[in-house]
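can u pls check wat happens w/ zinc ion
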Amino acid sequence: MTDCIFCKIAGGRIPAEVVWQDEHAMAFRDIQPLAPVHVLFIPKRHLETFAELADGGGAVLLSLARGIKEVVVSEGLTRTGYRILSNNGPDAGQEVLHAHIHLLGGRDLGPMLTETKG
Ligand code: 5GP
Ligand code: ZN
């Protein structure tokens, strides 16, 4: 996708602080971090939602899981903990329509959602 910001990062066409990558996936620091550690994990090929990741036959999901495992260690979050989340579609406020997983840590992250209403 030529006009997708995360495809441009994956292709090296716009800069990002890359902290991990393999053949299928990569991780880079969020430009507007919400915690001392805020890293985004993306598939290198354009997929819009988390649900579409399964279309990659499992290889992309395995890469993402391995990447998260490695970055949790390299960012020093093993003992203190972390949160991973993925916003998908309008109800979740997904801004970038290229599937991604946020890794947040380095402080007390508070409740899972700001509202308690179910
Ligand atoms: P979403 O709301 O779609 O789950 O999250 C998109 C995230 O991408 C936001 O946290 C935003 O700060 C981050 N982001 C948007 N554009 C860029 C960019 O050009 N570079 C980096 N590193 N992060 C970006
Ligand atoms: Zn894309």
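The longest strand covers residues 37-43.
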